[in-house]
Amino acid sequence: MTLAVRIVLGLALSLAPAFAAGFSAELDFVTRASNSNLFAIEESRLALDRTHNSEIKAFAGQLIGDHGKAQAELLTAAEGSGATVPTTLDPEHQARLTALQGRSALDFDKAYVADQVENHSNALTLYADYMLWGEYETLHALAVKRIPVSEAELKTAQILDGD
């Protein structure tokens, strides 16, 4: 092993405890849950304006209501956890929303539904993981509460997607 490799490895190993100490499961959960909610809401608002498909319109309306409620519950559940709930989309989700805005009418519905399949699959995994491993009581209760809602929304998105 070269001296440069040993130095880099030594530096990485010495910094690992500092990174681990700064990691907050609550912050990660709250940030990811909020982005999931905000993304579902913003894409669904766009879908209400763009789609001509009545099933997708109904689904989008449902998501706006469900995720608006979920975001409000997240704000309450996060109080005292040390985690701040984001109120705007992160750059990745904003870029995905922008890409959807640029879709033609022909491609819009398929892209919207595919985004929501992915979003709800990821949210379901997030909630299940926090249910198993999360320690902050009110966030844990929220994760447990959101699992059946996320499952139902994922199933609807999959049906709309034809899976």
Describe this structure in words.
83% of the residues lie in helices and 0% in strands. It is an all-alpha fold and 163 residues long. The chain has one domain: Up-down Bundle (Ferritin). Residues 14-22 have low confidence and may be disordered.
Question: Main traits of this protein?
Answer:
single chain, 163 residues, mainly alpha, Ferritin
Helix/strand/pairing category = mainly alpha
Mean model confidence by pLDDT: 89
- The CATH class assignment is Mainly Alpha
Which series of helices and strands comes N to C?
Answer: HHHHHH
If you compute it from the alpha carbons, what radius of gyration comes out, rounded to the nearest whole angstrom?
Answer: 19 Å
What best-fitting shape do the alpha-carbon axes yield?
globular
Integer tally of domains: 1
- CATH-defined topology: Ferritin
Proportion of residues in extended strands: under 5%
Q: Determine the number of helices (DSSP H or I, runs of at least 4 residues).
A: 6
